Amino acid sequence: MRVMKTTVEELQEQLNHAYQLRKKAESEQQQTEVILRGITALLEANTSDDLFASMYDIFRQIVPYEACFILQQNKPRYLICSSSTDTNMVGTQWLVDDILKRVINGSTLAVFNIHLQPTWEKIPEEFKKPYTSALYSPFKGPQNEGVLVFAHKQKGFYVQTHIDILENYKNFTSQAQLGVQTKLLAIESYALRKEKEKMEATLINADKMASVGLLAAGVAHEINNPMGFINANLNYTLKQLKQIRDYLANLQTFLDDLSIEPNFKPTEKISTLISDFSQQTPLKTVEAILEASQDSLDGVERVRVIVDELRNFSRHYEENDEDVDINECLKSGLKLVNNELKYHTKVELNLGEVMPIKGNGGKLTQVITNLLLNAGQAIDEGGIIIIRSGLSHHKDHDECVWFTISDSGCGISPDQIKSIFTPFYTTKPVGEGTGLGLTISYDIIDKMGGTIEVDSQLNIGTTFTIALPIKTSVPIKTSQ
Predict the structure, then answer these.
(1) What is the pLDDT of residue 317?
(2) 51-60, 101-110, 320-329, 465-474, range with greatest mean pLDDT
(3) CA-based R_g, the chain, Å
(4) Do β-strands 93-95 and 451-457 pair in parallel, antiparallel, or remain unpaired?
(5) In sequence order, which residues have a C-beta less than 8 Å from that of residue 398 and are 6 or more positions away?
(6) 132 touches 66 (CB < 8 A)
């Protein structure tokens, strides 16, 4: 009986052990499946935010936490938080105390109360306030060692069981983080490749624009010759028509006087002529022709001005210094782009007294044209562009000439303002902007010794302010 009892007890113990093993295996299988799903999500992530979110979801399946973050080597005696589920933690500096030093050397450690640990004393109170206990695990990054930190609001939450779990998964957590770094590099590589393609497309577009500039110069030259003939012929026609009008007016006066002579007996033809002139038919006809001819001449003059501005804009500028009237440049630039603005934008021109500056008028007009086109593209139907100029003192130039171009458009975000003068940077789709306009404008103004500044508010509008040093003391008065 004794032997049988012992055998039953051993059997029960073995069954209990087998049950525990089965439960452990089921738990590990379930955990493994969860981790595999997390890894799949990790591999499918296409942005850095999605990537880190997937990684932290995986870690949550291993160890529960209120916050999880990564500390990486930064400088002697300090680590830096490079990533965290709590965004307040990102960028915080962590003193390498004895506990962190042991973790970096390979130990997984739990801290009962973080407020007693020296490194947490350096963290701002508002950042560490939600947490009380922490669990640290070492990992080897692509370049150096780091620390994976789990934080919880419950004091003493992390115990030996959590340490054992992390020890078992130490290699996995390191591999997960290495996987994240590798995927990040792949995402960055893809982004760089797309940026390279965008830059190449921009360069091609810039080359096309240069060709268009040359073509415009040629077209302007070809238009200029026949427009000269048309202009001369219209002027001659107007001169002759005015003489005919004067002759007809004199003739009408003569006929009026003749018709009231008591002894005058007109023939039928003369009577018809007097009747026509009494109704002023010939004079009205000549006046209508004169008016139409004058309208044509005005149109020719507008074409001539546009052609001249186009030739000036399109030609390859030489580096030369000349006296430049910025008000004339502003008016010239506005004429060039007026057709792009007049259908959806109102333009106010408030030009003040200015002084000549030394520089290249054509290049300054190029800057103005670019700023006006940008302003027009930023504005929806019914917007307004205000152009101002004047004299003032500037912190960099003492007395200077300035002009501003303000629009009521969509505005520029603070992040974009930092980059708008960077070569090839553009907020427009490929093909709608080279990303070089503001860069070239900045370079032109800088070479003239001036400054270009931008002030913008999203959905309110943008103002570009250009200040240029004065090289003469003779003021220029302007007409609007």
Answers:
(1) 47
(2) 101-110
(3) 41
(4) unpaired
(5) 469
(6) no
